[in-house]
Design a protein that fits this description.
about 160 residues, alpha/beta, Maf protein, 6 helices, about 40% helix, globular
Length: about 160
């Protein structure tokens, strides 16, 4: 499991910047990263795209896809990650979208979450579907951990700067 400290160090060590697109986490991912001393060397910022129309209007998520699947979808998460990297001029984009609960939303049960990361690694963008247990706060916290872990896994394939 990656920590925000390890992630910030890994990004800085590779000369990469990061931006976060968040829905159900409402800024918690960006807050976790910026809680680390020295994070200003890598964190570009974040977009809290809680409303579905913001995902399309600000991040460039395909509006037709949003109509077809709703916002809780792997491709939506991937497009959010790509969009925030583009909008904020970052090398790496992270995204979270899903249902924190307590009840279902958009036809999905509480705890259904998608996280995504895009960056300069093979394949460029990756996403993961999660079925998280717990109450609203637990689902949101586990989502932050999951997207940090996903990025940590992707960074592991990249050599640090200068190697």
């Amino acid at each position: 499991m990656s920590s925000p400290e390890a992630l910030v160090a890994g990004l800085v060590g590779r000369g990469l910047t990061v931006a976060c697109a968040e829905s159900l986490t409402g800024g918690l991912v960006c807050a976790a990263l910026t809680s680390v001393a020295g994070s200003s060397r890598t964190v570009r910022g974040g977009v809290v795209s809680y409303a579905t129309d913001v995902k399309a209007a600000v991040l460039g998520v395909d509006a037709e896809r949003l109509r077809e699947t709703g916002p809780v979808d792997a491709l939506v998460a991937e497009q959010m990650a790509l969009g925030v990297a583009r909008v904020l001029g970052a090398d790496v984009g992270l995204a979270t979208t899903g249902v924190a609960g307590p009840g279902p939303a958009d036809g999905m049960p509480a705890g259904t979450v998608f996280v995504a990361a895009c960056g300069p690694w093979p394949g460029g963008v990756t996403s993961r579907r999660l079925a998280l247990p717990g109450d609203r706060a637990q689902v949101r916290a586990a989502t932050v951990d999951a997207v940090i872990d996903l990025l940590g896994e992707q960074l592991a394939v990249l050599a640090p700067q200068g190697e």
